[in-house]
């Protein structure tokens, strides 16, 4: 039996930057993250052991929790500029971990909204990145997650179309085509993450090359779920786990090549931990069976 870690599995640049900034700040002080720093419970727990605390972003935005005087951390998904300014005024310090790609969308959307454009955002309505983008154009945005959401578009308005960076090209292009047929004056800016675009193909190739895929990532992560569905499409023996303890030995009983991969919010240490478990946990029985 071969245990193979996907050579292309890695956190995206935005997540890597956020984690590094948080780790650096945690060397000298505790931090309060406005929402989970990333959608990965195991990584959040690791950072909590170093002094990271988390408060719900919605409570912070509404002002129902007092964060004045704290050292705050803005996660990679970002918050609107006005909210960032308000937090900066009341906090002891603010470490901004917003992904530069997301910050670019904020500036873009804000500029077009000021010019009177309707802002169309292809993404998940409750996703923190989409919420942050919407905060830059309150009252002018329409979030498009499914076909029915197209009915909310004002077809008479000049519009800007952007996307949640992690939503996936297939959905974006599908909605773009539909919207082009509805809106006469439409400006389209492809805001999908290029790194993730490339990742979608490499994970498909990896899933095809192994008998079983163990995709390690947070279940609440949009990117994790997109990658998991891609794996399932080409390899029925694909499983989403957050840690090694979730592996069912029956998944592996007939496998010769087991592939371990991760999403854009899965640090390498988690992949290594899953591989290491094959010599230490319940997988021992499966390995011994294969060797007999």
Task: Please write out the topology.
Layout: E1 2-5, H1 13-26, E2 31-34, H2 41-48, E3 52-55, H3 57-62, E4 71-74, H4 81-90, E5 93-96, H5 100-114, E6 118-122, H6 128-134, E7 141-144, E8 159-163, H7 169-182, E9 186-188, H8 194-209, E10 212-216, H9 222-234, E11 238-241, E12 257-262, H10 268-277, H11 283-291
Parallel strand pairs: 1-12, 2-3, 2-4, 4-5, 6-7, 6-8, 8-9, 10-11, 10-12
Please explain how this structure is put together.
- The structure is a single chain.
- The protein has 292 residues and is an alpha/beta fold.
- It folds into 3 domains: 106 residues, 3-Layer(aba) Sandwich (Cobalt-precorrin-4 Transmethylase, domain 1); 87 residues, Rossmann fold (3-Layer(aba) Sandwich); 88 residues, 3-Layer(aba) Sandwich (Cobalt-precorrin-4 Transmethylase, domain 1).
- A 4-stranded parallel β-sheet has the order 1-12-10-11, with helices on both faces. A 4-stranded parallel β-sheet has the order 3-2-4-5, with helices on both faces.
- β8, α7 and β9 form a beta-alpha-beta unit.
- α8 runs parallel beside α9.
- The protein is flat and about 60 Å long.
- The C terminus is likely disordered.
């Amino acid at each position: 039996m071969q245990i193979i870690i996907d050579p292309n599995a890695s956190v995206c640049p935005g997540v890597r930057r956020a984690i590094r900034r948080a780790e650096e700040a945690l060397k000298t002080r505790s931090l309060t993250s406005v929402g989970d720093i990333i959608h990965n419970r195991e990584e959040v727990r690791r950072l909590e052991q170093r002094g990271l605390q988390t408060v719900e972003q919605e409570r912070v935005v509404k002002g129902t929790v007092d964060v004045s005087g704290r050292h705050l951390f803005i996660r990679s998904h970002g918050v609107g500029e006005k909210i960032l300014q308000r937090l900066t005024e009341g906090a002891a310090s603010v470490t901004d971990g917003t992904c530069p790609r997301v910050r670019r969308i904020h500036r873009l959307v804000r500029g077009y909204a000021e010019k009177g454009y309707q802002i169309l955002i292809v993404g998940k309505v409750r996703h923190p990145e989409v919420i942050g983008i919407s905060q830059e154009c309150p009252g002018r945005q329409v979030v498009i997650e499914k076909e029915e959401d197209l009915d909310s578009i004002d077809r008479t308005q000049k519009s800007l179309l952007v996307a949640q960076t992690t939503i996936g090209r297939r959905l974006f292009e599908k909605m773009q085509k539909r919207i082009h047929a509805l809106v006469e004056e439409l400006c389209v800016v492809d805001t999908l993450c290029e790194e993730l675009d490339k990742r979608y193909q490499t994970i498909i190739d990896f899933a095809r090359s192994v008998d079983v895929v163990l995709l390690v990532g947070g279940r609440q992560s949009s990117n994790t779920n997109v990658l998991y569905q891609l794996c399932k499409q080409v390899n029925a023996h694909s499983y989403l786990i957050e840690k090694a303890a979730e592996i069912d030995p029956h998944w592996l009983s007939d496998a010769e090549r087991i592939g371990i991969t991760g999403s854009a919010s899965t640090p390498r240490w988690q992949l290594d931990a899953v591989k290491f478990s094959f010599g230490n946990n319940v997988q021992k029985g499966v390995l011994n069976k294969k060797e007999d």
